[in-house]
Amino acid sequence: MARSSLPSPSDPLRLEDGSMAMPTNRIEVQRVAVPSNTEAKRLVSQTRRKLADMPALPAQMNSYAAILVYTASGLSDAEISVATGFTVEQVLKLRAAPAYSVLEENIINAVKQESTQEVNSILARGKVRAAQRIVEMVDSEVDVLALKAADSLLDRTGHKAVEKVEVNHMQMLRIEVVDKQTRDIPIIDMER
């Protein structure tokens, strides 16, 4: 009977990079989700749309982006001129371009959005503890703390105190009637 050329379960396995994997060693394999055809088309479409939404052509965007990064880093126009090879006048002209302003605004908004998402994530993780703390403080021995906690708890559960607004407003209305025969335009004067 011929012996099989298959390795035995205890034989090492040679990997593509040349390293050996022993059957007793665990190898972690990172899995990558592959999008479906429809999802892939949507991703490509979004990417193209995002490129089309940029305020200038890619070659121009590089100049704007470099000046924007150097400006945000605190470099002076003269230093930016040295770093980019542009004249100071060119730096000022590029910074004055509408595309530069749009790029700057897009970056600021992206940073704000990212920080807002991070803050919301942090707050979401602490909201259960915060709610528990408010409930605990309702039983505080210090009356001022107990009252504030109780008010906060009632407000957050939809039992806000009724706000009363009094309106004291006097208004006078003066109407002048003009004879139709004179064809004057009547005046309605409202005084406060």
How does this model look, in words?
By secondary structure, the protein is mainly alpha-helical. The chain has a domain at 48-156. The protein contains 6 helices and 4 strands.
- Record the strand order, biggest sheet: 1-2
Amount of beta strand: 5-15%
Low-confidence stretches: none
* N-end to C-end Cα span: 114 Å
Helix content: 40-55%
Order of helices and strands: EEHHHHHHEE
Radius of gyration: 36 Å
Q: DSSP helix count?
A: 6
Derived structural class: mainly alpha
Reported for the largest beta sheet, the result is: 2 strands, antiparallel
Mean pLDDT: 79
Task: Please report the total strand number as a whole number.
Answer: 4
Q: Oligomeric state of the chains?
A: single chain
Given the C-alpha coordinates, what overall shape results?
A: extended
Write the layout of secondary structure elements.
Elements: E1 13-14, E2 20-21, H1 37-52, H2 58-72, H3 77-84, H4 88-96, H5 98-137, H6 143-156, E3 172-175, E4 188-191
Write a short abstract of this structure.
With 192 residues, the chain is mainly alpha-helical.
Structure keywords:
192 residues; two-stranded antiparallel sheet; mainly alpha
